[in-house]
Specification:
With about 950 residues, the chain is of the alpha+beta class. It has 15 helices and 51 strands. The strands form twelve sheets. It has an eight-stranded parallel sheet. Strands 45, 46, 47, 48, 49, 50 and 51 form a seven-stranded mixed sheet that branches. It has a six-stranded antiparallel sheet with strand order 4-3-9-14-11-12, with no helix packed on it. Helix 2 packs across helix 3 and helix 4 (about 405-425) runs parallel beside helix 5 (about 445-460). The longest helix is centred in the middle third of the chain and has 24 residues, at about 565-585. It is globular.
Length: about 950
């Protein structure tokens, strides 16, 4: 089938804004390339003196040099940074404005009858090109290659001067988009990726778009043939190929496509059978079809040849109600946000190997998707994701609060969206497209509706949504919905983990039922870990970790630098506990479409947010392995519904075991098993559920668990494990069981028990006595908010608590002998922290360490205590800032801690060594 291309398409081609030859093409003899990488002449032009108002170049010869591909930051060009900031990583050299790049190159004489294109894979972000001092045009894009047809300006067989003007000034006001943000990849100036001249015959394949149809077992190819002869040509395209990246290789039937015409652009649409069986692409089997198209054409006295490849996957991505359906099965998005954090270069990699490493890391930790927050990655990312079966949500560079106030910006983003779809539309991994993030403005809904509607008409190969988080529009295929998470922005200590002890009967069904399309919950799991200063030497590139160095110096000034690693490890273990519960809460929500984690790796800006379980370089952090994380973030995960994680031996533990199955098939005839074990592995109770077929979806109920706890005599931490027999699918949870009544109430003996600092306490200590000071929290002087959860994002950006990172203690200390705990926070600490008034001990002697310490905000590293001991004169003192007095009959955890402390202060083990003057202790209490 042949048809004439519309005039406006021809105009677009002449502007160089469409043609996208597949980057995955083979080395084909019909095409020639000439690499332009290497040393270029260079000059900054901050005052824009290089071109006058008539477009004539006035700039003198460029006196400096620079290496491309690369950026001005990498070359040390621009303004050397003088200051430091704790808000983000710091660019060693900054530059915003115009820079000139020039190179002379000899073009082969045999190219004299060729069409020649200048290809700049990624420039930041507006380019103008002159060839032999004659203008070749202008391009602007943050997302796709800048391409120039320069045939008429070249002198084959001679030296040719290529001069490129790159402008990274604020071409359009797109505010905070991560495509240019100082918080992540930076607004760099330069050219990266492939920089080359490409030569084609005057009749050649300019573009191929593939539209596979799984039901029909065919692919519809839209082939654009460029004909610059100005005359009628006729010819054929031979198409053949095979299935690659599959365990079942097969060939595609050959087909010949005939064409003829005199138009500058001839388009041919054809349908090609794929053979049987049709192999589908998804995360479980990323089968790719690779077709080679070989063109042979004739015109008057001339023959023309060309060849290219097109790679695509056959997939069916639809929605049914609030579920995604991928190749006929319910699917669940387990994604991470990527905001373009690449501190060594300041810009994203353009090589496939690095993207394979990043996506493989994501898959190792149980993810199947990545959302590119307000930016679009280079071609190599799509190629890597295609091969690995990894899903991508790409976004326009749009994070504005002024949508509708600037029509020029809207126009740029309309064009940019089209460019992205044209350039990367064949990639099966490109399953979702979004305009941007948290968009606001007077006409934002109208703009988003127009964008999404246009995209659907232009390219039906993926799902579309308007804005991540808000606003929602009716045109959305799915929502990236804000709110379905345990800690919302600026919720402070009113967030779920801080107002209520954990139960797992809650989920987000109330959000799901309000929507008619699938919902991916927005930017979840923002729990931080204390910065790891061991990462500092890894920053060997253009971005410097002065923020981490400032945090380290703050800790040094407060005499706590020796605790840095302990802070990191304890807060890291707690971070994983919080993330685990959050992930499981989404998996156990009926009808939920998925989540985007913010994020698997650290975020370096916006106040500094170390939220990752891998560092910014995608390397593992020391407190959790990929295998451990993968147990609860996976295609198949056992789940637990229970009312509490703390129990007494007078109770019967009850729970419902469930299972999330978002793998490739039903689990048939499976037997779920459970066991409740002591810390040494000894089984307290166990059981199994009736055999069942577990369908694809979630949640599926395996059965009920009921275990009387009356045989447990002492406080114990137990581990409940649920697994599927003869599989690796297993998950576990910590439970704590406490005596309803102790065999004998701990008698502190001659130890004075008090609730505040007073004359009697001072006198007893002065005479060499012992005091257990169970502080009345109302009498303590402290500005520390008793938040149980870790810090969400960071306190600099939010300006409010939670501003602690859990507890740090030594479980082997005799004060905790009868209180089972790890060295970090876990769910049993909720009652204790919630009923506390943590005190600040910055005025205490150098090196003083509490028995139970709260890990501080890295921006304000104070010495914060829940429990501490001290030698006061001749006496011994143990102080707790936890309420161990009120409602104790309802608080078994508090009763157990009090019992352990009383046993300790009445024993010979009570022997504090650090001396604290009475005056310093008195300062902890209100007058």
């Amino acid at each position: 089938m042949m048809k004439r291309i519309p005039v406006y398409w021809i105009t677009a081609i002449l502007l160089g804004s469409v043609f996208t030859i597949q980057a995955q093409q083979n080395k084909l003899s019909f095409r020639n390339t000439l690499g332009l990488e290497g040393v270029w002449k260079f000059k900054l032009d901050p005052f824009e003196t290089g071109v006058n108002s008539n477009g004539v170049q006035l700039l003198p010869p460029l006196a400096e040099t620079i290496t491309l591909p690369g950026s001005t930051d990498q070359a040390g060009k621009g303004y050397k940074t003088q200051g430091m900031t704790s808000l983000r990583l710091t660019r060693a050299f900054e530059y915003k404005g115009i820079a000139w790049y020039e190179k002379e190159i000899e073009v082969p004489e045999q190219w004299k009858d060729k069409e020649v294109e200048l290809f700049l894979e990624r420039a930041h972000w507006q380019t103008d090109v002159w060839i032999n001092d004659k203008p070749a045009g202008k391009r602007e894009s943050l997302s796709v290659p800048h391409r120039y047809m320069i045939t008429s300006l070249l002198r084959p067989g001679k030296k040719n001067k290529i001069r490129i003007r790159v402008n990274n000034d604020k071409i359009y006001d797109i505010e905070y988009a991560h495509a240019i943000s100082a918080e992540t990849q930076t607004n760099w100036n330069g050219i990266i990726g492939k920089i080359e001249l490409r030569a084609f015959d005057r009749v050649h394949i300019a573009d191929v778009q593939a539209y596979p149809d799984a039901a029909k077992g065919t692919v519809r190819l839209l082939v654009s043939i460029c004909n610059t002869t100005g005359k009628s040509v006729q010819g054929s395209i031979q198409c053949n190929g095979a299935v690659v990246h599959t365990a079942k290789p097969q060939s595609v039937p050959e087909k010949e496509i005939r064409f003829s015409g005199a138009d500058f652009l001839i388009t041919v649409t054809t349908e090609i059978p794929l053979g049987t069986p049709v192999q589908l692409w998804d995360e479980f089997d990323p089968a790719l079809y690779r077709l080679q198209l070989t063109l042979n054409a004739t015109g008057k006295d001339h023959r023309y040849n060309d060849a290219t490849t097109v790679t695509f996957g056959v997939r069916e991505l639809t929605t049914q109600g609030t579920r995604f359906v991928f190749n006929g099965r319910p699917a669940f998005i387990r994604g991470t946000v990527n905001s373009s954090e690449f501190p060594l270069t300041g810009y994203p990699p353009t090589d496939k190997k690095e993207w394979i490493r990043i996506f493989t890391t994501c898959k190792d930790y149980g993810l199947n998707a990545m959302r590119f927050h307000t930016w679009c990655p280079p071609e190599a990312a799509f190629e890597a994701a295609d091969e690995l079966g990894f899903y991508l949500q790409v976004e326009n560079p749009d994070w504005r609060f002024t949508v509708g106030k600037d029509s020029a910006v809207n126009g740029f983003l309309r064009r940019e969206g089209e460019r992205i779809l044209n350039a990367y539309g064949n990639h099966p991994s490109f399953i979702m497209f979004c305009e941007g993030n948290e968009l606001v403005g007077p006409t934002v809904k109208e703009f988003l509706t127009a964008q999404v509607t246009h995209w659907k008409q232009m390219d039906p190969r993926r799902l579309y949504t308007g804005s991540a988080a808000y606003p929602l529009i009716d045109a959305n295929d799915y929502h990236v919905l804000y709110g379905a998470r345990p800690h919302r922005w600026k919720e402070g200590l009113k967030s779920r983990f801080n107002v209520k002890a954990l139960d797992t009967w809650y989920d987000y069904s109330d959000y799901v039922i309000k929507n008619k399309v699938p919902m991916i919950t927005h930017e979840v799991g923002q729990w931080c870990v204390y910065p790891d200063f061991n990462e500092i030497p890894k920053y060997t590139g253009v971005l410097k970790p002065y923020n981490y160095e400032l945090f380290r110096e703050l800790l040094r000034e407060r005499n706590m630098l020796d605790q840095a690693e302990d802070f990191m490890m304890a807060s890291g273990k707690f971070q994983v506990i919080l993330k685990k519960e959050e992930v499981e809460s989404y998996l156990r929500t009926p009808g939920l479409g998925g989540y985007h984690m913010l994020q698997l790796n650290d975020f370096p800006g916006q106040g500094t947010a170390p939220v990752g379980v891998v560092d910014i370089f995608w390397d593992p952090k020391p407190y959790v392995t990929a295998a451990a994380f993968h147990k609860f973030q996976n295609t198949r995960v056992p789940l637990l519904r229970t009312a509490s994680f703390t129990w007494t031996n007078a109770q019967t533990f009850t729970a419902t075991a469930q299972f999330a199955n978002f793998d490739s098939a039903v689990l048939k005839g499976t037997v779920g098993e459970w066991r409740l074990c002591f810390p040494d592995g000894k089984v307290y109770a166990s059981g199994s559920f009736a055999p069942a077929d577990i369908p694809v979806g979630s949640p599926f109920t395996l059965g009920e668990i009921s275990v009387p706890l009356d045989k447990i005599e002492t406080a114990t931490q137990l581990k409940l494990t649920i697994n599927i027999r003869s599989t690796s699918y297993s998950n576990d949870w910590n439970l704590w069981v406490y005596p309803q009544k102790q065999e004998a109430e701990a008698d502190p003996g001659k130890v004075l028990v008090a609730d505040s600092w007073n004359k009697r306490v001072a006198t007893v200590l002065e005479k060499g006595g012992s005091v257990l000071l169970l502080a009345d929290t109302a009498k303590l002087r402290s500005d520390v908010a008793p938040g149980f959860s870790g810090i969400s994002w960071n306190t600099v950006w939010s300006g409010m608590p939670p501003n602690l990172l859990g507890i740090l203690c030594d479980p082997e200390h005799p004060a905790l002998q009868f209180f089972p705990t790890a060295f970090h926070s876990d769910w049993q600490w909720w009652d204790l922290v919630a009923h506390s008034k943590p005190v600040v001990l910055d005025h205490f002697p150098f090196g003083f360490k509490p028995l139970v310490q709260m890990i501080p905000d890295w921006n304000n590293p104070r010495k914060i205590s829940l429990v501490f001991e001290a030698r006061v004169g001749k006496g011994k003192l143990l102080v707790t800032a936890i309420d161990l007095k009120h409602q104790m009959e309802q608080r078994p955890v508090a009763r157990q801690l009090l019992y352990s402390l009383k046993r300790y202060v009445s024993s010979n083990a009570f022997a504090p060594t650090e001396e604290v003057p009475p005056a310093l202790l008195q300062q902890l209490f209100k007058k």
